[in-house]
Amino acid sequence: MGTLRMGGSDDVDARQRKDNEKEKDKEIDKSKEIGKGKEIDKGKETDKSKETDKGKEKEKKNSQVEELKSRLEKQIAGAVWIQAFGVILETVLLQRLYGLSEGNIEGEKETLAGAWIQSAGLISEAIGVTKEAFDPTLPFVFEGQKVAIAGNWLQSLGSALKAIGGEKIFIDELLTQIPDFVD
Q1: Quick one: pLDDT at residue 45?
Q2: In whole angstroms, what is the distance from residue 153 CA to residue 118 CA?
Q3: pTM of the prediction?
Q4: Distance between CA atoms of 95 and 114, rounded to whole angstroms?
Q5: What Å distances lie between residue 100 and 43, 93, 168, CA to CA?
């Protein structure tokens, strides 16, 4: 019986060794899975950092675009002021020219009135565009837009009046065969 016991004890030891080996294999498998998980996590971290880099690049590009827009808006405001000064100068010179005319030519009053209204409209537009360009807060932007639009309407009205006056001057010239300056 002692032999049996010894043999039985050897069987138990062998089973324990197999069980221990299985446990070790399981632990190795678990550590491999954990390692793979870390690799997957590293991949996710790399993807997240790429997304973050893309987001930063996009923000930088948006910032550059906004800065460019702001500079262009300010340049447009400057150009509108130049245009306003040019139209005012044109109107003053036109008034001097018409002041030299002998008699009262049909349409000169409408043309001059239209030129002054157009000048006022351009000044109004320049003020509005300047408000828009130099103070980007919403109340000022909206106020500037309203003033600029009103200025555009005035310019349109002035242009229409100038066209009416110019047409009268043209008809008078056709009848008298004496050319005059039409603006």
Answers
A1: 57
A2: 9
A3: 0.65
A4: 11
A5: 85, 11, 18
